[in-house]
Design goal:
Length: 271
């Protein structure tokens, strides 16, 4: 088993509220690039891809969107005739081809859902247990909150819940407060409490805190393995996003920065 004693020992300690620190995702990726096995670096880059989903959708809809330095591709590559198109992740290629063909057929919220579904399938193909566990956790949050929102609209719930695991099947069969749902996913009760908060930013931060704790739980007995590096990547993604959200010197459209698990993938405007 490959272990990364030097890399992990040299990483700055992260806390959930370390939004003011100087160490960021870009520096981490630079450090990782020279230290990781190529397969493991691919796993790290796979997790980083999620930060490009909202900007990618805006770009495909004709908006001017700047490239993200830590994203391993340029939005300009999303034209099939571009040389860089074949370098895009497979799920992005597939999504772009479908979007450019059928953009007028589906509503915008369906495109966001399809992109997420493709991403989760892409992560499942990586064959890493940590990535699989985190992807299931992330998808469960999205599906659970969607199911709560559409608890009185069963056809919409069936349309919006993303398939892919046992919990998704339970949510399609039962209401979120059903015993089988609550028992199958113990974090449902914690999420229920978070979702009682009407403040969008506070709710988003609480969900990210729940995610942070889940990363720690998944790595409880890991010390110098690639799983620790993957968890560190996810934590940096959380921190990077909140550093942008909390910038006091610029006016932000919050709906374009936060990844609201409650509304983000089924409404045009989360706010």
């Amino acid at each position: 088993m490959t272990e990364y004693h030097c890399l992990i020992s040299g990483l700055p300690e992260l806390t959930f509220d370390s939004f003011e620190g100087s160490y960021g995702l870009a520096q981490f990726l630079e450090d990782a690039r020279s230290s990781l096995d190529p397969v493991h670096l691919d796993w790290v880059n796979s997790l980083v891809l999620a930060q490009g989903h909202k900007p990618l959708l805006r770009y495909l809809n004709g908006e001017t969107v700047a490239d993200i330095p830590t994203l391993p591709y340029s939005f300009e590559w999303t034209f099939p005739e571009k040389d860089g198109f074949i370098l895009l992740p497979a799920y992005v290629q597939e999504f772009v081809l479908r979007f450019r063909k059928d953009n007028e057929i589906l509503p915008s919220y369906q495109w966001e859902k399809l992109l997420s579904e493709g991403y989760y399938r892409f992560l499942a193909g990586k064959g890493n247990p940590f990535i699989n566990s985190w992807a299931n956790f992330d998808m469960n949050i999205r599906n659970y909150t969607t199911s709560k929102t559409f608890k009185e609209d069963i056809p919409q719930k069936k349309m919006q819940v993303m398939p892919g695991n046992k919990f998704a099947r339970l949510l399609l069969e039962f209401n979120t407060d059903h015993k089988e749902v609550q028992v199958d996913w113990p974090l449902a009760a914690a999420l229920d409490k978070i979702l009682e908060n009407p403040d969008l930013l506070e709710r988003e931060k609480a969900i990210d805190h729940l995610t942070w704790d889940e990363i720690d739980r998944l790595n409880l007995f890991n010390y110098f393995s690639i799983e620790v590096v993957l968890g560190y990547t996810l934590k940096l993604l959380i921190i990077e996003r909140w550093r942008v959200i909390l910038k006091p010197d610029i006016q932000l459209d919050v709906s374009r920065i936060i990844d609201d698990k409650v509304q983000g993938h089924f409404t045009d405007s989360p706010l």
